[in-house]
Amino acid sequence: MKFAWIIHPVGKEEMYKSSLAFGVLGYLWAKSQLIRNLAIRHRYIHSFAKITEIVSLTNDTCSGEVFVIPCEPREILDNQVLALSWIEQACSKAAKRGAEIISLGGMTGIVGSRGRYLQSVCPLCITTGNSCTVYSSISALDDISRRLNFDLRKEVVTVIGFPGSIALAIARILAEKGIDLILLSRRDDKFIQRYISEYLNGYKIRLKLTMDLGEAIKNSKIICSATSSGNVLDPDKLLPGSIVIDIAVPHDVIYKGNLRKDVLIIDGGIMSLPQKTKIKFKLPNLERPNYIHSCLAEAMILALEKRKENFSIGRVLALERIKEIGKLAEKHGFETREHFSFSKRIDESTYEMVKKHI
Predict the structure, then answer these.
(1) Based on the structure, what is the number of domains in the chain?
(2) Which residues of 302-323 are buried (b: 16+ CB within 10 A; e: fewer)?
């Protein structure tokens, strides 16, 4: 079964990197606004990579292709109608190439009601990949707590990006674990209050909703951040010993070059391909080959299972599906073996330094 993954560059530099494989045309596409305008007029979608064969632990196989639309995150949010037309065109191209399921990466999974619009107009199965992203991010947090020897149940966890679909699901999973929560939102509306009442108030935890980021990070060292805008969290303002699972694309933590040694910034939603996979696949924003974003992993897993269905759609994700995709990830050999910070592998000295501050 074939899959497709639709993504976008997170900035000018990545747009340039992702286009290098296309020679002069790719260089001009990345560097020239005139060429990009022509691309928009003629609906030019370029294929970043073909993934020839994924081999799982069960010896099942699948293959797929990565398509890039020429829009940065801000352009997607500012002109969602144009962005959706690009995504539709990419879906059409993927269908012609034989894809049967499509995962929406980054901002492409937010516009159009998180896959609902494309579900209604696209003949292929659609997923945002958010279930697998939630699963891998929670797995990363659990792994870090074991590695640094602290009990999550004794901590207060701040969830930034509430009520986005990833933040909603993470809050609910943490509440099930009995962990106290601070939910950071830009607003307090009827949907948020209804969600809290229906899904979170039944647990014996302390729960606070706030719109004050400064207050939240002063009262919490463990942070899961998944906004749709990025660049909201100043690392200099974090408490020593803080741990941030940064799931957002682009990153929520502002990159300042020299990273603090007393805090841990983890790129959330990253998994490794099954070890039986022989190809070497490398994304431009990840340092190591065969490490991928979990939204791509979800499409691969569903293709390996030959599941032709719309899996992660809409704002409220079913916890049963998150647990199911997690079990299937383990079955096929997708793992969170190593952790990265701003796409660079985290070394043991950083873990030890943060452990002292915890």
Answers:
(1) 2
(2) bbbbeeeebbbbebbbeeebbe
CA distances from 256 to 231, 241, 342 (A): 11, 18, 10
pLDDT tens for residues 136-148? 999 999 999 999 9
- What is the Rg, in whole angstroms, of the alpha carbon atoms belonging to the chain? 20
**Under 8 Å CB-to-CB from 304, ≥6 apart: which residues?**
1, 54, 56, 58, 60, 61, 62, 328, 332
Determine the structural domain holding residue 318 and report its residue range.
2-131+271-332
What pTM, to 2 d.p., does this model score? 0.92
- Indicate whether 42 and 145 sit together in one domain: no
pLDDT score at 29? 54
174 with 84, same domain: the answer is no
- Domain identity same for 47 and 140: no
